[in-house]
Design brief:
9-stranded parallel beta sheet, 11% strand, globular, two-stranded antiparallel sheet, alpha/beta, TIM Barrel
């Protein structure tokens, strides 16, 4: 009789649907930026002794003159009037700030506050840039492979330091963790070059690089990452890789491409009226401040230096045409995408060139395998190949993928984008991709609305500082709770909020489908 009960239980577990979970998903966060970019450009750890982890950044940002200038130039791109006064804990008179991209915004208590505000799944991504690491003259490591390993371990260490987070390695893990009232953390990779499959122009000697890996080497690397716990993956980030082309939307990133590959981008012109692309790739040296030109020989190898006009092409521009990357999915990339699907990876198509995106989406539709766009916006907003087209949204919806809407400039901007995307995909399988810690400025204060704080929802306080989203914007991750709470004031309907607060369930359903479909994928 006992065996009969066991059989009944197993059959019920298999056939009966799992209980739906609640809460929302951040599909794109970087809690361990402190372990990337050479270790000394991005300041502040997410846990530890707060007086050290979030203290005075002067030691890292001012010890080296080149790094000090690089940090100042980088920070002032988002808000020219903002100045890094170096002072963090306990008064936080200078940072964190919505516009500051080089200071830690994901302190563990701030993540807890976001969780208390409804965040139940967070995709925590390893990220770095060998180019930036080299330019910042940090103590390293610089190479993508080692930084990825450090970030993955760093994410695990952060989770282990808390009592409200757990790493999810399976969809069942995610359901169990969220059902228990905790935050499910999914480890991901948004590295420029998986497996050190690139050729850095600084000839970095502390690592081994393979610019033309075999299929066996690609398979071994993806097996290794999976064994380490990586479940969410970007095949391409900010430069062309052995897998395919990157989306072109920023002239400065052409420098990173040449640094990583030895070659600049090759572009092709496409009709604006059919593609929606108006972006034109300018020479990366155009508009460089005089101080940047003066220090550039210290920042970049000779053949990469954008201040030398001969290092980059000045592309023609035809009226009514825009520029996109001429490189699509490579033969090695076709193998890699198929193998990622066979492993059950959750694949994100953001940052792929349009040519690569279209081929990967075609593969996903054929295999009925979900792919995602985790931190993006419509092509009609971005006007470059990294923005999603109507057809791309339709294909993502068709295969059961998830869409993470970029965080927006402020609450009203986010709600407008959310409305637009919801009108395209026609269903609420949408989350947010904050890109906190990923060199992305966060939402500013919205002067058209005002969030009311009271006894049921108080302002965030850390040390001696009290934050108010009405004046500070989303200065750190803890204010994500305030940001979400402000959306109804900016026009998000009750039904839309209900759908957003169910995105954790939709995300797990997407992951479950990846697991179910992986056995059917063929190369």
């Amino acid at each position: 009789m006992r065996h009969l009960y066991c059989i009944i239980f197993l059959l019920a577990s298999y056939y009966l649907p799992a209980q739906a979970i609640t809460g929302f998903v951040d599909m794109h966060a970087h809690p361990r930026g402190d372990l990337a970019y050479g270790r000394e450009l991005f300041y502040g750890a997410p846990y530890g002794d707060i007086s050290v982890a979030l203290g005075d950044c002067r030691h890292d940002h001012s010890r080296n003159l080149v790094r000090s200038i690089l940090a100042a130039q980088t920070e002032q791109q988002n808000s020219p009037t903002w100045r890094d006064g170096k002072k963090g804990y306990p008064d936080f008179t200078s940072w964190p700030a919505w516009c500051s991209i080089l200071h830690q915004q994901m302190w563990v208590d701030w993540i807890r506050r976001a969780h208390e505000g409804g965040l139940n799944i967070m995709v925590a991504l390893a990220v770095s840039s060998h180019t930036i690491a080299y330019a910042s003259k940090g103590h390293g490591p610089y190479d993508d492979e080692q930084v990825l390993l450090d970030c993955v371990q760093g994410i695990k260490d952060l989770v282990a330091h808390s009592d409200f987070m757990e790493v999810a390695y399976t969809p069942a893990d995610a359901r169990r963790i969220v059902a228990s009232g905790r935050l499910a953390v999914i480890i991901g990779s948004e590295m420029d070059n998986i497996g050190n499959f690139y050729n850095p122009q600084d000839h970095y000697s502390r690592a081994t690089f393979t610019s033309e890996p075999t299929e066996g080497q690609v398979q071994a690397e993806l097996d290794k990452l999976y064994a380490l716990g990586v479940r969410y993956i970007f095949p391409v980030h900010l430069n062309n890789t052995v897998f395919g082309g990157t989306a072109i939307f920023n002239k400065t990133l052409n420098v990173a491409n040449k640094f990583a590959t030895g070659a600049e981008w090759k572009i092709e012109q496409v009709r604006t009226d059919t593609s929606g692309i108006t972006f034109h790739l300018e020479h990366p040296g155009s508009g460089l401040p005089a101080i940047a030109k003066a220090f550039m020989p210290l920042l970049m190898p000779k053949n990469v230096n954008p201040a030398k006009m001969v290092n980059y092409t000045i592309w023609d521009t035809l009226a009514g045409y825009g520029h996109r990357n001429a490189l699509g999915l490579t033969a090695r990339g076709r193998f890699a995408i198929s193998y990622m699907m066979q492993k059950g990876y959750m694949i994100d198509i953001d940052h792929m060139s349009e040519r690569m995106t279209d081929e990967v989406l075609s593969k996903a539709v054929t295999a009925d395998y979900p792919v995602n766009s985790g931190h993006n916006e419509p092509r009609s907003f971005s006007h470059n190949e990294n923005g999603r087209t109507l057809l791309q949204y339709a294909q993502i919806k068709r295969v059961g993928g998830m869409i993470g809407v970029g965080h927006g400039a402020n609450a009203s901007d986010f709600v407008h984008t959310y409305h637009t995307v919801a009108g395209i995909v026609g269903e609420p399988h949408m989350a947010i991709g904050t890109d906190v810690g990923g060199f992305s400025a966060q939402p500013q204060r919205d002067t058209t609305i005002r969030l009311i704080y009271d006894d049921t929802f108080t302002r965030c306080k850390t040390g001696n500082r009290i934050w108010d989203i009405n004046t500070d914007g989303m200065a750190h991750y803890g204010l994500l709770a305030d940001y979400v709470r402000s959306w109804p004031l900016a026009g998000m309907s009750g039904e839309e909020m209900k759908g957003f607060m169910s995105s954790a369930e939709y995300f797990v359903q997407m992951w479950e489908k990846c697991e179910a479909r992986k056995v059917s994928v063929r190369y």
